Records
---
Amino acid sequence: MDTRQLAAFCAVVERKSFSQAAERLGVTQPAVSLQIRSLEQRLGRQLLDRSGRRVEPTEAGLRLYASAQRLLAAEEHLLEELEADDEGAVTGRLELGASTGPGGTVVPVLLCDFQESHPDVRVRLSVSDTQTIVEQVADRELELGIVGAGRRHRGVTFEPFFRDEVVLACPAGHASAGKTISIEQLRHEPLIVMQEGAGVRQVIEDELRKAGTRLRDLDVHLELGLQESVRSAVLAGHGVTFISRLAIEADLAAGTIATARVQGLDPAREIFLARASGRSETRAARAFLAFARENLRA
């Protein structure tokens, strides 16, 4: 079976569009259409429903999609192994994404140390919110994602990578600094939150829901994008925010930011590793994960 036809088919299923699939594969739309027609003719079945606004797989197409992913992953793994040099040195590219929490703290240091140990690997890190990174992993624009929340997504698998503590950060000298406050007291604090899609925000919304309240019940003054934005606002004295402790370690050491606890909330979170389902890891990715797990345990 022609794996180029299978790759075109999988791209159309994942993008739900012939034109977007062609763009992803770097070919023309007619070329993708020809590959799909040839595949359907060979199998004697209609694989895609083209009648709606979006292209959807038929029942036969869904069965083929699962098997095609496995076959393409095996092909990718075989080619990657064949390209490895005789000495076993790790080479190639590592395309990795991280959400703003781990992407601004732990991950850059890990990557720098890894690259020093494997100088023949070219590393590129993209930093964005959790939702964007997961989408890029699903679209195979990134090989790995390290994100602050495990979101359900067809085509992406998640596994715990390391734990991160989320704290309520407040300006130095704040009345709540170093104390434990109730949710009722929190309602009267000017709260700064990150944008929707941020992993920390999802964790806090889940914790509040378990405690019988919601984010909209609090005094949310500002929604300021991602982690560095809310940190800057707290430093300037504009309110309090929930944030990864890793992101403010230097501020805590310098005494410019303090923390408080909220009774009934335990917002420690798992940082997750996100991978595209069925995708075979490159040697560079396997080497990085082994390196990271060893160093995160240290």
---
Amino acid sequence: MTRAEDQDDEEDTIPRDAVQVEFVDVIDGDTFDVDYDLGPGKDPDRIRMIGIDTPETSYSYGNEPECYGEEATNRLESILLSADEIWVERDVDPVDPNDRLLRYVWYVSGTDDHQVIFLNEQMVEEGFAVARTYEPNTHHQDRLDEAEKRAIQEGRGMWTACDASVSLDPELEDDDIPDKAPIDRTKTPISDSDEELVCSFFNTRDEAQDFLNLYPEMAEDLDPDGNGKACEAYFDN
């Protein structure tokens, strides 16, 4: 298995300084136990995945169970159990205040292609975790933040199951967690007119125009003056 990060192709590879471990047990969606010895017997160490946060499943550390915590835990366990190889990579701070090893996690899939997958990113991309910056461990944070944007846009996992707004818009998810109550989707105050009410659901004039082109029967609301331009008055305000 290639371990260089500087390959010409775009596929992930195991980082040069990563260490192979053996999966022992799952704790929750971002924490699990591993064995570094890869031999007989078990001497587990606890891994806390860097740059992500999953919903809580217990009352430990002053927390309480949260929406999608059990699903995230089950997803993490299923991935690690089926992986052919598991590798962990450290950043600046190796240990958190609870003596857990802070690591990025990479694994070789058990499928025929033996693909190398960045697990921290996968959990965020599938909507089982949110991206969370923990300074100074930020080596892969941009990548994790982008994965969260894609998860929100696609309404994956917790972004549909636990989000009261289901905005599908990363800019409206300011706190980077699913909303407990519906949020205001409008960019500007709206009046009682049908045009402004309908147009408030579009972020740009181009989005409104594309919608009008697909559904010309909506012209009465989107293009009341009949000039072929959607939401002209709304976006000129």
